[in-house]
Amino acid sequence: MKKKIIIGVSATVIVIAAIAAGVITGVSSKKKSSNDINISCKAVVTKNDDITCYDWLKKLCNKMGIEAENYRKAAKENGYITDSDEFSDDDIASGGFIALTSMRAMGEGKMQIYIGTDDEISDNTNIELAIGKDLIAEDSLDKGFSDEEADGILDKFDDLYYGEFWPNNIENVSYKENVSQLEYFDIKDYKEDDNIITLDDSAARNLKKGDTFVFDYKGDKVSKKIGEDMGNGTFSLEDPEIEDVFDTLIVSDSASIGIDDIISYYGLDNVEVSAGNPVTTLASNVSGNIHSKGFAIEAAVNDDNELEVTLTDNDTHTKYKLPVKQKLNKKCENFSIKWDVNNINVGAQVKYTLKNGLKYASVGVDIDSEISGKIGVEGDFSDGIFLCQTPAPIGNHLVAVNVALYIVPTIDGSITLKVEVPFHAGVSYEKGKGVNGTMGLRSSMQTSIEAEGKMGLYFRTAPMLVTMKSIPLLDAELDMGAEADAKRTGRPNGQICSDVNINFPVFKLGAGNESVKYKNKKSLLCTMNISKDCEFASFAKSKSLHYERFSDGTKQFVDECTYNEQSENDKQKESEASTEAPTQELTTQETNANQTGSLHTYKTRMAEYFPEQTTFYFDYPDNWTVIKEEVGNDGECIILQNENGAKVCYDALPYIIYKYMYDFGTQYTSAAMSRISKSRYNPGKDFWIIKIKDTSNFDSLHDQTITFDDGAEMYAVTTAEKSIGDTFDYRSGGCVMAFMFECPNSAGFRSEPSDKLTDKDREEIIAILKSFRDTP
């Protein structure tokens, strides 16, 4: 279940890499000086519509959660630019200017941890790191960048911020001289809830009121201060401050949270277990990592208006009801929330020295999840409805990230919502600069909604960075969700129409909040009166949809309402003809396919090797030939081809496809996506035939964007969830795997991407895809 996706390297590797890049030797060891490189802020080589210096600073500030009337002023206040940077707001920003300001936005404290220095980070070092880590090409320092290319640099910024520059296993710790370190045999009894400890006589005689000591407890590092001597080696305890404990605390690491961590926190004896299916074989990749399906958090209100929370292991289907039943003080009806979590990963970074105090602290959360729910409520739950929590120990358990999970509904009316947004978010404090937050999407987002009224539905992660199980340093609240406004209209024929306007994804971030506490103790950030609240509006998209549900239960999203007033005779004729009127394109395709000749039916064979795998059938005409048939323990591959070279492919794999398996590469392609028709295959939920047509390609290796007038297109059978939207972005050949579906392993039925299809090819391809089914 454990898996780290915040990529990092050891401290030793960092030092070696830094030396190889020329960062440490002769560079990072010196402070800024006149020997630093002189970056020209103004681009020498430009093209039309290149981004200006001011617009770049606005984009960078927005990335860091900063909104301002004057972004030049805001950038200076946060240290992204200095007085020595000479430029006019309307100047075209050079690549060097973009790289330098990006690296400064990383935060000096963060970069000091990465490099391993207390010295200021010079402009030379920043530029060398930007080039060495492929944030920008060395030959692009004097060039201008388009708005789209600037967005690409910010995507790389995210990758570096949460990856390379958030390394694992960095630890540099020293305690103050007067801090005692107790061994396990020194401790007779420790009552954590009562904050009382009983020590062996030899250890007790060396401690007095006000003394601070550290010890190991259940694998964690704990620090306490003696409150009162209660006699016989027993002491009442207090929580110390960070300056009572450490001379130096420098840590950077990450951890993964799974269902087992949450259950362990509450204690298996306190959890009601409902047995599921036994685990036979879980697929693993070449590194041996298990491909877990994650877990689901489900919350529902019982008859006493109490919220009950259940965890479900998606691998074994075992259910665990948590002991967190809570009475809601506001009326809820039909409250049902499901939060599917593929992974929750957290990271922490701290740099504290006795000389400078808390120089830098950062907490990051990386989540790949999906929420869905149907709720009828009265009132506003914007404070959040608590679900569960668990601590994630970092490094050698010197620090931990205590993660609390909430659902935040604000609803007027009856709403059904489904939203999926894999994202990463971070909050950092840097001495002299206050609090910054970063938020980034890792891939595209999907929503589906059936609504009446207004709503907002978010899930909230509230990570608290804690050291020694007693000193909370940094708190954060990170909300992700969607907002919608819908008006429902009932039709005489039983059809129900909803005009829905959705804003998604909506991100909100806060830090230094008095309401976020650890064991009833506010964070150091809060006691310093440093706080931040912002909304990442730059990510939000607005989409207006017309949603229809017919009397037979069929549902669809359309651009315009299909209902019209008809006579009873017209209605009768329509019902006799078809309950789902095919598009003109589809009607032509089916007619031509039949005219081509007799149809052949193909039966897939992977179930011979994996009995649980669904057996599929599809038809193809005489002018199509099966040119490849492979089936075995590695999966199944069938390729059909017609006389023009057009191809249709069926692929099946003996494991589940996850996004990280195809979301990689240096080629970023944008495509237009549209639904063609519903699929004949319907395993209890709608599948669709979709069309994907490439519109542009960005080559990050060569920093080039190509726009297609008539790009390659493919057609595929996929789930209703994946077919929503009019655009699709992918990396390299990821579109092939992106539309595979579970059955219960993985399968996909699609055409081969091509820019040479004729109308006849298209008609035949869609007719073949239309025949895809799980019955003979």
Strand content: 35-45%
Indicate the low-confidence ranges by residue numbers.
1-35, 277-292, 571-597
Approximate shape: globular
| Mean of all residue-level pLDDT scores | 76
Computed structural class: alpha+beta
Q: Total helix count?
A: 16
Radius of gyration: 29 Å
Q: What is the terminal separation in angstroms?
A: 38 Å
Major β-sheet profile: 19 strands, antiparallel
**Number of individual domains:** 4
Give the gist of this structure:
By secondary structure, the chain is an alpha+beta fold. The chain has four domains: 11-168, no CATH class; 171-240, Ribosomal Protein L25, Chain P (Beta Barrel), CATH 2.40.240; 252-277 and 289-482 and 506-536, no CATH class; 584-770, no CATH class.
